[in-house]
Amino acid sequence: MMFVRSLVAFSLLGSVVVGEEALSALKEGEFDFQVENRVLAQANGKPITALDVLKRMDFLFYRQYPDYISSNAAKYQYYQANWKEILEELIDRELMRADAVETKVEVLSSDVRQELEQTFGPDIISNLDKIGMRLDEAMAMLKDELMIRKVMMYKINSRAYRAVGPLEIKSAYEKWIATNKESEKWCYQTVTLRGPEENEGLNAARYIREELLKGLPLEIVRDEVIKEGILPASISLTVSDTYLHPQDEVPPLIYPHLSTLSVGDVSEPFSQLSRKTGEVAVRLILLNDKIAAHVAPLKEVETRLKNQLLQDGVEEESKKYLNSLRERYHVSHEPRGDQGIPVMIIPRI
Q1: Of all helices (H) and strands (E), which one includes residue 11?
Q2: What is the pLDDT along the chain (349 residues), one digit of tens a residue?
Q3: Residue 17: which residues within 8 A CB-CB, separation 6 or more?
Q4: Domain coordinates of the chain in residue numbers?
Q5: CA distances, 13 to each of 52, 82, 93, 328, 339 (Å)
Q6: Beta-carbon contacts of residue 69 (< 8 Å; ≥ 6 apart)
């Protein structure tokens, strides 16, 4: 490897030895890359080099982040995060390309041209220059990509699609119900009486409960006990808003008293001492309604379940197919391949 002034050599996976000028360049993003092109792996007899991996990453980076294509700092982060995954992807792509050639998969030049225009837009040459790729390289890469898509459709997607039918969807729905069934919802209100004496609160609560069980509306009973002087002056009365909670969201203090009630019932009064104020809170629970547990019908979730089954099937078939290719074709990693891509950062002067 050749070194020049203010040059930093490093591996995208290994440690970085940084000089003063290079450290400043890394922080400010003012640098260029230079690659020591060495073989990282072999796939079906074809060497896959560091430059192959970088070109593939540049191509994917352009597709995903076209607005940042001129930012070497952003590309540097992308390289660090993705180089190993892209190396394995290139191995798989080469194996699938070999399988496509062997099975005589054909790609029309017009399809390649269309893919080229869709990827790089009308100003193809200018955009290729941004990632340092020649036209013939881009066309070869896109031709391979179209071949691989066809192979995947024949050998992966079609098998996954055939494996998903009404019985599989029904089975997935039954499993889905087990974890997605909504619990029964309870519609209720609480009546709270606060005061210094527990007995006063309990007596008032019992009176209110008796009136409610006669069928009188809660608002009328509340107004009656206040206006008629039934409620001692030392006790305050509050009526909550109407709550609508699934069973598993009902507060623990309320649940034991609410769970035994039928619609229209009122709980026995129960009390709680406030350690902070010393007051006693006496409560009643009124159950207004129960809403049965809801289960979404199959028709509502069928498309979602089918798509998930297809996605899982494609992943499973992909693993099987790629594993079979690695058994069929020779794959090897070079001894220094795991050290990463040898790149040099050149600070801009």
Answers
A1: strand 8-11
A2: 333 333 333 444 433 333 444 445 445 556 677 777 888 999 999 999 988 998 899 889 988 998 888 888 888 888 888 888 999 999 999 999 999 989 898 899 999 999 999 988 888 999 899 888 899 999 998 998 899 999 999 889 999 999 999 999 999 999 998 888 778 899 999 999 999 889 989 999 999 999 999 999 999 999 888 887 788 888 999 999 999 998 888 999 999 999 999 999 999 999 988 877 888 999 999 999 998 887 888 998 999 999 999 999 999 999 999 999 999 998 988 776 566 666 655 555 5
A3: 8, 9, 10
A4: 8-162+317-347, 182-291
A5: 17, 10, 22, 30, 6
A6: 61, 62, 75, 130, 131
| Helix, strand, coil tally for the chain in percent (to 5) | 55, 20, 30
- Token pair of 198, please? 């527990």
The architecture (CATH level 2) of 182-291 comes to Roll (3.10)
Alpha carbon distances (Å) from 91 to 22, 41, 148, 160, 297: 33, 8, 12, 23, 45
As given in the structure block, the two tokens for residue 170 are 């029904």
What is the pTM assigned to this prediction? 0.59
d(CA 184, CA 292): 5
Name residue 223's amino acid: D
Architecture of domain 8-162+317-347: Orthogonal Bundle (1.10)
Give me the amino acid identity at 108. Answer: L
